[in-house]
Amino acid sequence: METLEDFRQRSRAWLAGNMRRLPPDAEPWNAMRVDEGDAERAKALQRKLFQAGFAGLCFPKEYGGRGLPRVYQKAFTEESRPYEMPLLFNTPTLTIIAPTILDMGTEAQKRRHLPAMIRGDELWVQFMSEPSGGSDLAGVITSARFDGDNYLLNGSKIWSSYAYFSDYAICLARTDWDAVKHQGLTMFIVKIHQPGVTVNRIRQSDGNVEFCQEFFDDVPLAPEDVIGKVNDGWTVGQRLLFHERSATGGSSPYASGTAGRRIETIDDLVNLARAAGRLDDPRIRELLAEVYVLQTVQGQATDRIVAGIAAEALPATSGAMLRLFTGLNGLRRSDIALEIASSDAVAWDAGESDGATGKSYIFRQAWCLGGGSTEMQRNIISERVLGMPREPAADRGMPFKDVRRNAPGKEA
Amino acid sequence: MQPIRRAGGALDFDLTEEQQLFADTSRRFLADECDLSTIRKLAETDAGFTADWWRRAAGLGWISLLVDEDAGGLGLGDEGILYLGLVAEEMGRMVSPGPLLPCSLVAATLSRSGSDEQRSEALPALVSGEATASWCFAEGGNSWSADSVAMQAERVPVGYRLHGDKWPVEAAAEARHLLVTARCDGQLTQFLVPADTAGVAIEPLEGLDLVRRFARVRFDGVEVDESTVVGAPGGAADDVERQLQIGLAVSCAESAGAVARVFEFTLEWAFERYSFGRPLASYQALKHRFADMKTYLEGCHATASAALHAIAASSADSACLARVAKAFIGDFAPEIVQECVQMHGGIGVTWDHDIHLYLRRVTTNRAILGAPREHRLAIADLLKL
Ligand SMILES: Cc1cc2nc3c(=O)[nH]c(=O)nc-3n(C[C@H](O)[C@H](O)[C@H](O)COP(=O)(O)OP(=O)(O)OC[C@H]3O[C@@H](n4cnc5c(N)ncnc54)[C@H](O)[C@@H]3O)c2cc1C
C-alpha cells in the first residue's frame, strides 16, 4: 500500500491540478441551501474524483471504493479544504445510506448501488420521518402491503432533504400491523421519480425551499429491493441511525471534504465582524474566540470519541455525544453571529446583504432537530452510555394496530 | 442496573505501559496517603501539606518529569509533560494538596535555562522534594500574560534591584526559591531569588481551596546579584511562554480529573437516591442533564489531552491549544460541578459532603493562570483577527 505521506503528496498535486480553488471570501458550503444546479455540479465533481481514484476511499474495492484506512480519507479531506468538493454526496448518500447498505444489503444491492453512488451517478435521500412523527422512528405508519408479487407502498414521508432532485431513497415502512412496533417494519429501496410518488417541496422558516414531503399511492416495490429481512427493518434502521450519528457528529470515515477551510473555521464570522466595523471591539473578539474554542473542542472531542470507540474504551453509542455537541455548538454559533451583526441581521440594504445571519437564526433549531433531535441524543447518552433506566414506553408489547397515536390535527 | 464503571473516563485511553504504571503508582500513593479525610485535617494547617509527605511524593519522580537527565531528572524530554498530566489528573480526582505545578514549572525552567550553579544547587533539592519553589508571575487581577508583567528589575552596581508585588503566588510561604518574572529595560527577565533574601515579604492570603495556599509576595527594593538571573537577561520570553503553556495544560488536566471524579460519584448517587419510589436516574429531566454533563466532560478531557500532546510534540499550535483548553475548561468545569451539586439536593451544599472540595479546586483553577475571558482575548490575538 502507498504510504500515507506519498498518498498525501499525490492528493495535493492532483487537487491543485484538477479541482477549482475556492476564492478566499467564498461562502462556506451550507447543507441547508442546495438546489438542482448544485446536484448536477456535485455529480460532475464526484465523477471526477472517482476517475482519478480519489472517491470512496474507505469503501471496499469490490464495490467501487479504494479499501483504504480512515487516516487516508482524513488526509485527503485536509488537503481538499481549499477546493470545491462534491460535499452534497457526503450526507446522506455516502455517510449514512451507503454504509447501511454495505452492512445490511444483499450482494446484488451492494454491486448495483454502491459503485453508482461512489462514481457520482446516484444521489440518495432518507425517507424516515413522517407527518405523524420522527423521533419515534419505529412508529412509522407508511405501509407496504405484499400483493403476491410486490409490496405496495402507501402513505407519506416528510422533511426529506434534497428529495426533489435526488435519485433513490431508503424508506422504512410497516409491513405487519399485528406485530409489536419494532417487529413489523421493513426497509426498502425506493426509486424517487416514478408513477405513484408525488414530491412536494416545503418552504422552511428561513424562506428556503430545501426539504420535501412525499405521498405514495400504490407504489410497487420489488422483493429484491428489501434491505435486510422482511419485518426486520428495525435492525437496519438502527444501523442507519448509528451511521447518521457518526455523520452528523462529524466522525464518519466516509465523508470526503469538509465545509470551510478548517474544521474550526470562523472566517464567515470574522468577515461579518469586519463588515460591521466591529473587529476591534474586545467584546466581539471575545465572542469570535469563543466560537473558535467550541469548534476546536468539537474537533478534539471527535478525535477522542472515534478513537475511544475503536479501542472499545467507549461504547459505540458514544457518537450521540458528538451529535449533541454539534447541535449545541450550532445554537451558540448562530446566537453569536446575530450578536455580531446586530441590527444588520434584522434590516439590511438589498444590494449589500442577503440577510443570511438573521435568516439562519430563524432556522436555528434545525441544528438540534435534523439528523435526530438533541433530546433523542440525550436519551441515548443517558440510557446507553451511562446505563440509566430506559424511559417507560406505553406501546411496549402490544400489536402496533392498537397503539395510541397523535391527537387529531397533530400531524405535521 | 449499575452505572458503567468509571463513567467519568480518563484523559487518555491509550497509555503506554510505563505511563499506565506511573499513573497507577501515583493513584495508589494518593489514595493511601492522602484520602479526603486527611485533606480535611490538612485544611487546618498553615501549609496545607506536610514536608515529609511532599518528599515522599517527589520520591515517585513527580518533579523530575520535566528535568533533563544530567540535571537529575528522568530525561523524558518533551514527553515528560504527558506524565505530569497523569499526576495532575490523579491529583484532581483526589483534590490533593502539594505544590506540584509551581515546583514543576521552576524545575523545568532551571533544567532548560538555568546556570550550572542553579542546576546543581537549587534544582536537585526541588527534584528530591527536599525544598519547594514557586513562580511569581501575576500582579493581581487578571494579569496572567507576559504583556501584563510590570515589575521592574532595575540595573544596579551589585546586579539588579526588584521592586513590586506579585500575587497570587501558589505555595510561596514554604518555598525556598522564588522564580520571579520581571522586566529589565523593557524585556522579560527571570530571577531565581532565595525566599529569605532581604526585602522579600511573603503575606499569606486566605483562599477558596482547602489545601492549596496562595500568598502576596512583596519585593521592596530587593537587591540580587547577577547569578540569580535565569537564562539571558532580557531573554526570558520563551521560558515564560513555556511555563504558561505547561501550567495551563497541567491545570486543565487537574480540573478534568476533578470533574470526572465528581461526575462518577454523582452518577452513582443518581442510581441510589430515590424519590417518588424511583431512582433519580429514572427521571428524564435529570437524565438529560447527565447527558449534557457527560458530553461536556468528554470535551474537557479531549481538550486537556490535546493541549498536553501539542506541548509534548512541540507543535506550533501549542500556544493556541493550551489557551483553548483553559478557556473551555474554565467555563465548563465549575459549571458541571455546580450542576452535580444540584443533583445532590441539600446535602450538596453542606460542609460535610466532599463535593465542595472539588468545586473549590476547579473554581480556583478557573482563575489561576487566567480566566476564560482573558484567554479568549489572547486567542483572538493569536489568530490575528
Ligand atoms: C434540516 C432538517 C433536515 C431533515 N432531513 C431529514 C431527512 O432527510 N429525512 C428524514 O426522514 N427526516 C429528516 N428530518 C426530520 C428529523 O429527523 C425530525 O424532525 C426529527 O427526528 C424530529 O421528529 P419530528 O419532527 O417528528 O418531531 P417529534 O418527534 O414530534 O418531536 C417533537 C419534539 O419532542 C421531542 N421528543 C420527542 N420524543 C421525545 C422523547 N421520547 N423524549 C424527549 N423528547 C422527545 C423532540 O426532541 C422534539 O423536540 C430533517 C429535519 C430537519 C430539521
Tell me what you see in this structure:
The complex is a heterodimer of chains A (412) and B (385). Chain A is α+β, with helices and mostly antiparallel strands and 412 residues long. In chain A, 40% of the residues lie in helices and 13% in strands. In chain A, strands 1-4-5-8 form a four-stranded mixed beta sheet. In chain A, helix 4 runs antiparallel to helix 6. The mean pLDDT of chain A is 93. Chain B has twelve helices and ten strands. Chain B has three domains: 125 residues, Orthogonal Bundle (Butyryl-Coa Dehydrogenase, subunit A, domain 1), CATH 1.10.540; 98 residues, Butyryl-CoA Dehydrogenase, subunit A, domain 2 (Beta Barrel), CATH 2.40.110; 146 residues, Butyryl-CoA Dehydrogenase, subunit A, domain 3 (Up-down Bundle), CATH 1.20.140.10. The radius of gyration of chain B is 21 Å and the shape is globular. Classes of the chains: A alpha+beta (412), B alpha+beta (385). At the A-B interface, helix 8, helix 9 and helix 11 of A face helix 8, strand 10, helix 9, helix 10 and helix 12 of B. The structure holds flavin-adenine dinucleotide. Flavin-adenine dinucleotide binds next to strand 1, strand 3 and helix 11 of chain A. The site of flavin-adenine dinucleotide has 21 residues of chain A, from strand 1, strand 3 and helix 11.
Key terms:
heterodimer, A: 412 residues, alpha+beta, Butyryl-Coa Dehydrogenase, subunit A, domain 1, Butyryl-CoA Dehydrogenase, subunit A, domain 2, Butyryl-CoA Dehydrogenase, subunit A, domain 3, 13% strand, B: 385 residues, 3 domains, four-stranded mixed beta sheet, 12 helices, disordered N terminus, binds flavin-adenine dinucleotide
